[in-house]
Amino acid sequence: MNRLTLSEQFFRDQASANASGGLSTVLNRFSLLARMLASEIMRAGFVGKLGYTGTTNVQDENVRALDVISNETMLQVFENMPMVCGVASEEMEDLHVLPGGESGKYVITVDPLDGSGNVDVAGQMGTIFGIYKRRTTSGKPTLADFLQPGRDLVAAGYVLYGPCTMLVYTAGGPVNGFTLDRSIGTFFLTHPDIKIPEGEGSYSVNEANEPKWDDKTKAMVRAFRSQEAQCGKRAARYAGALVGDFHRTLLKGGIYMYPGEMKKPEGKLRLLYENAPLALVCEKAGGAATDGKTRILDLEPKKLHQRTPLYLGSKGDVEEATRRLQ
Ligand code: FBP
Predict the structure, then answer these.
(1) Which of 141, 169, 191 delimits the end of a domain?
(2) Do 186 and 227 lie in a common domain?
(3) Measured from the CB, is residue 115 less than 6 Å from ligand 1?
């Protein structure tokens, strides 16, 4: 079967978006990053890179060797390419100005290695990315270039590292999924124009957090668990990696939840480089995403590492979960 390659699709997207040509170059860089990290992750066990570094990141999370490697690889891929002037990364406290990108008109938001807790158990992991046009017109990028609502994303997507490596993205149009043929290092279109199913699938939440939730959240999750949700019966699935849980939800339907907690109402997941990019992919596939009250894509970020609760998946599931939380 004559499958489209990722590069060919990028150029089609660029033409339809009347982009200047820079966007496809940026997207091609994420394809390169995906192939490099897929290789790193596959070799990590052999080269003793599965452990912790002994340091903590800005999120006060223990940092694994692969978190550092993934972030450094991402910087190598995007430094000295004229299209991108700055990056906001989960692994870096402040925005990072990319050398050689001063005239670049894009900024990127990246979770280089999502689900890194799965690294030493050969579980699913991912990379999540968003691409914005900078708001300032020249010079070094500022916070204003990054603190944009998700609805202003030019493109967004994720890479899934699992039994196969997939890259799924939207440039404002359809959501297309590509699978890596490792033997020739090329992504091929395998999932054209993905649409999230309605009325079926799984609910995905870490139920061990139930004691931390408020009563409305407990009751809402219990409705899904007890098969009493009006949107239909759901299986329980939780991979412990947002990208893995979302990819299953995108293809099979249902809902992924990371609720806020009584002591941490903002929850765990980060708006700029986790929730907003996946919310764009989800909405372009016909789904929905809220923080339990507001559409994720309408949230105006105030800080680079701002956290929000996340309800992401089939429109009927997300609307019901959100309704039950009011
Ligand atoms: P990072 O690994 O990038 O920090 O992402 C956070 C995350 O690992 C998600 O991938 C995953 O869905 C969630 O945390 C799991 O959290 P918990 O272990 O509390 O259920």
Answers:
(1) 191
(2) no
(3) yes
Q: How far is the CA of 324 from the centre of ligand 1 (A)?
A: 24
pTM above 0.85?
yes
Q: What is the pLDDT along the chain (326 residues), one digit of tens a residue?
A: 678 888 888 777 777 766 666 888 999 999 999 999 999 998 887 777 777 788 888 778 887 789 999 999 999 999 988 899 999 999 999 999 998 878 899 999 999 999 988 988 899 999 999 999 999 988 899 999 999 999 999 999 999 999 999 999 999 999 999 999 999 999 999 999 999 999 999 999 999 999 999 999 999 999 999 999 999 999 999 999 999 999 999 999 999 999 999 999 999 999 999 999 999 999 999 999 999 999 999 999 999 999 999 999 999 999 999 999 99
Cα separation values, 222 from 60, 139, 232, 284, Å: 31, 52, 13, 29
Query: What CATH number should be reported for the domain holding residue 213?
Result: 3.40.190.80
Closest-lying ligand 1 atom to the alpha carbon of residue 128: 3
- 70 and 187 assigned to the same domain: yes
Q: Ligand 1: which atom is nearest the Cα of residue 239?
A: 12
My answer on whether 209 and 246 are in the same domain is yes
Provide the domain count of the chain.
2
Q: Are residues 122 and 31 in the same domain?
A: yes
Atom of ligand 1 nearest to the CA of 126: 10
CA of 39 to the centre of ligand 1 (A): 22
CB of residue 114 inside a 6 A radius of ligand 1: yes
Asked if 208 and 153 sit in the same domain, the reply is no
Segments forming the whole domain that contains residue 280: 202-325
